[in-house]
Amino acid sequence: MSEAEIIAAIRTVLDQHMSHPHLAGFAPEARLNEDLYLDSVLILHIFLNLELEFGLDVPEELISRQDIATVADLAALLARGHGAAPAPVAGEGVHGELDYDIKVHCFVSCLCDGLKKRKLDHRPFYFGIWDTPFAVSERAQLLYHGPGITQDFFKAWFERLYGVAIEDWYDAARSKEENIETLLTRIAQRPTEGSVMVMLDMFHLPERENKFNQNPFPHYLMLETSENPDMFSVLDPDYRWEGEIARETVLNAVRQPTVAGGYAFDGSTAHAPDDADVRDYFEACFRPHDNPLADRLRDIVKAHLAGRDGLTLGDLPLAMRELPVITIRKYAYEHGFAYFWRALKLPAAEFDQWCDEIETLIQLLKTLHYDCMKLGQTADAGLADAVLTRIDEIDAQEFKLKHKLGAIFEQWCAKRFPAGHGLETGRAAQ
To answer: What was the pLDDT predicted at 420?
Structure first.
């Protein structure tokens, strides 16, 4: 197909197969996210329908591309039949300045924002993110957030690592309006270097980009007063966004029954973490012998294949809908590798190779998501073996990363604690 034919096919898919409500601005130069409100999941739906309805081949490497800006860009890549990424920009890499950053968890990103302002290394705090708890519903749906998931683990370790006390100001026993009154008081009385975090439903902030098109979309960000009393100054470190949003719009997002939570802390007391605390935190986080995500993904697919509790293959795309939110957490491995790599002054080129291995894991997870959508939409059980094989590949790739990361952690421990206090001699890992 030519680029013009592919552009026409994309419009047909959005209109006839996806009933997309934002077609008024459709054009070759229309931006996928900003103009057409297409997130990564919806773009996968476009790929799937182009493959199934128009017979267009979608290369695996194209599925994980994040630099496709417009409809024309997408059509050009599909017409060429490949999705080669642009060449990376050369730099100092892992041994350069500490401004290199990864955003993968809203609560952690909010806490680390103050550390970066004080030129403190925030990367150790990301050790636990790659295996951050998630939930699986009774209907075998993968959920990045759910009842019973708290921030207590990260809260306690942040206080120990960096010396910053974090206060949980949200009281679940009180009404929404009472908690909002507390929030307003906290914002009004915020210390100069203080931060006020609140959980809100991003789906109800139409001014903000919703990359994952989730509804609901629980998310932590930080609020301050504005010179305009009808506005809040909003800081969203996880999405690298700062600006003003109408006060009532923000409070409406806080009022939603899908969200509840808030914290306050003063970053002026932050200090660099002690090596012993970094060691203990890594050991508390690191799970060298199991991969919770791969295990649960396998269970979910098998539950749908077996028709457990009335499930069908048609339910599988919904069950995997939140996988992209959990997938990006795996980028936290880069912070783990970078922290120990820098401390040990290991070769930068080899670090880049392990970053490629992390990217391979991300690619496998994104391709799995696409495969599950295809399995669900076609209801072709013959595709199931390939899906389960893909999960096995994900499992093996993550163990490969953990094996190497555990090895350089042991090397770091041998240098910092000559008497021996690594994974084998220190506290038992989870």
So the answer is: 62
